[in-house]
Amino acid sequence: MLEVKIRPLQIEDAYTSFKWRNDAEVWKFTGSKPNKKISLNDELAWISKVIKDLSARRFAIIVDSVYVGNVQITDLTDTKGQIQIFIGNKEYWGKGIASLAIGLVADYAQNELNLLQVYVEVNPLNQASMKACLKNGFVKQSGTNFLIKKLHG
Ligand SMILES: CC(C)(COP(=O)(O)OP(=O)(O)OC[C@H]1O[C@@H](n2cnc3c(N)ncnc32)[C@H](O)[C@@H]1OP(=O)(O)O)[C@@H](O)C(=O)NCCC(=O)NCCS
To answer: How far is CA 10 from CA 16, 17, 81, 122, 131, in A?
Structure first.
C-alpha cells in the first residue's frame, strides 16, 4: 500500500514541478493554468514568493518518498479557505492519492488552522476530482461548481 504524506512546499521542489507546469493535460480542468512556457527560474521565483504568503498554506504531496504533486489552502480567512490540488506526475493518477491528500489537508485546516469550512471549485467534467472531494465529505452547492466541507461539526 502506498504511503501518502504532505509536507510544506519548499523552493527545491521547483526542479520537479516546473516540468508539470508545461504539461497541458494536467491543467485541462483547472481554473488557473499557465499562459506561457514556465522555466525553472519562473518556478523557483514563484515558489519563493508564495511560500511567504500568509493567506495560503502550500504542501508537497509525497508518495513513498516521491514528490508527485501539490495541494494547498488559499484565500485563507479566519474561518475558511479554498483547497486546490494537482498530481503533476501522471504515473500517480488513479491510485487514490488525491483522495488521501485532500483528507490530509482538510485535517490540517481543521486541527492546525481551526477553520470552520473548506471549499473546492471543481469543473463538473473532472470526475476524479469530484469523486475525491465527495469521498472526503464535501457537499456540492447546487447551481455552482463549488463543494464545501464543514469542519468542527
Ligand atoms: C484530479 C486529480 C487530482 C485526481 O487525482 P487522483 O489521485 O488520480 O484521484 P484518485 O485516484 O484519488 O481518484 C478519485 C476517484 O476518481 C476516480 N477516478 C480517477 N481517475 C478517473 C477518471 N479519469 N475518470 C473518472 N473517475 C476517475 C477514482 O476511481 C476514484 O474513485 P473511487 O474512489 O470511487 O474509485 C488528478 O487527476 C490531477 O491532478 N489532475 C490534474 C489537476 C486537476 O484537475 N486538479 C483538480 C482541480 S479541482
So the answer is: 11, 11, 21, 26, 29
